[in-house]
């Protein structure tokens, strides 16, 4: 079995608690949407843990002091449509100065390969820390293609953030993009015969938008 590389599993109690509620089939659309956004905000703390800081001098109401501010590092959030939209807002809540791009993919029914039908990215993607977001890392096809597209547009530093993953998807990203760190709340068991993550949480897009 190939070793899983470049993966950070976020085990914070609040993350795990909210993930359990998301998995529950009885969680309705409204609650699913709120939980997804909350989880994304919590996970974003870990994803951005190593962003660089500058020392600055400020004046408090009491005195002058040295403090920390984010350096000139800029962030870009790129959800893979459509389910990734539910995660993007959570990150933007935490980092309101980030710019958001969008990548739309569908699976070719004959080749089963992801095909891009929409792409709009920040013009300065090359100068940003890009966070590609998609709730499910299953086969890894969509994630690998999304990362390839942002790199094609000049992105030099890319991170992948997903709620639930499986070893098959992680290995696919490791092989295609060995420089990309993966952040996930869970590495689940496997994919079933229909390509769904087990135990997973079902189709994130359908549950997010109430389309099933």
Describe the fold and architecture.
The protein is of the alpha/beta class and 212 residues long. Helices cover 32% and strands 32% of the residues. It is built from six helices and 13 strands. The chain has helices spanning 13-23, 29-47, 85-94, 141-152, 167-176, 204-209, and strands at residues 7-9, 53-59, 64-70, 74-81, 99-100, 102-107, 114-120, 128-133, 136-137, 157-165, 181-187, 190-191, 197-198. The strands form three sheets. Strands 1, 4, 5, 6, 7, 8, 9, 10 and 11 form a nine-stranded mixed β-sheet that branches. Helix 1 packs antiparallel against helix 2 and helix 2 (29-47) crosses helix 3 (85-94). It is globular, with a radius of gyration of 18 Å.
Euclidean distance between termini CA atoms: 36 Å
Structural class: alpha/beta
Helix and strand string, N-terminal first?
Answer: EHHEEEHEEEEEHEHEEEH
Mean pLDDT: 92
Beta strands, count: 13
Give a short account of the largest sheet: 9 strands, mixed
Strand share of the residues?
25-35%
The number of helical elements comes to 6
Structural topology:
Blueprint: E1 7-9, H1 13-23, H2 29-47, E2 53-59, E3 64-70, E4 74-81, H3 85-94, E5 99-100, E6 102-107, E7 114-120, E8 128-133, E9 136-137, H4 141-152, E10 157-165, H5 167-176, E11 181-187, E12 190-191, E13 197-198, H6 204-209
Parallel strand pairs: 1-11, 4-5, 4-6, 4-8, 8-10, 9-10, 10-11
Antiparallel strand pairs: 2-3, 6-7, 12-13
Helix pairs in contact: 1-2, 2-3
């Amino acid at each position: 079995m190939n070793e899983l590389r470049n993966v950070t599993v976020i085990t914070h109690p609040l993350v795990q608690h909210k993930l359990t509620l998301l998995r529950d089939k009885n969680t309705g659309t409204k609650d699913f949407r709120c939980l997804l956004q909350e989880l994304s905000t919590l996970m974003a703390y870990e994803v951005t843990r190593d962003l660089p800081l500058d020392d600055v001098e400020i004046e408090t109401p009491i005195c002058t002091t040295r403090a920390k501010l984010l350096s000139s590092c800029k962030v870009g959030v790129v959800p893979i449509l459509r389910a990734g939209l539910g995660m993007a807002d959570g990150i933007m809540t935490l980092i309101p100065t980030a710019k958001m791009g969008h990548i739309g993919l569908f699976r070719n029914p004959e080749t089963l390969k992801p095909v891009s039908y929409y792409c709009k990215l920040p013009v300065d993607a090359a100068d940003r820390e890009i966070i590609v977001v998609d709730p499910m890392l299953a086969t890894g096809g969509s994630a690998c293609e999304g990362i390839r597209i942002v790199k094609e547009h000049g992105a030099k530093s890319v991170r992948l953030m997903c709620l639930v993953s499986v070893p098959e998807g992680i290995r696919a990203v490791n092989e295609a993009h060995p420089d990309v760190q993966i952040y996930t709340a869970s590495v689940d068991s496997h994919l079933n015969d229909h390509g769904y993550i087990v135990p997973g949480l079902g189709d994130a897009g359908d549950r997010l938008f109430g389309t099933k």
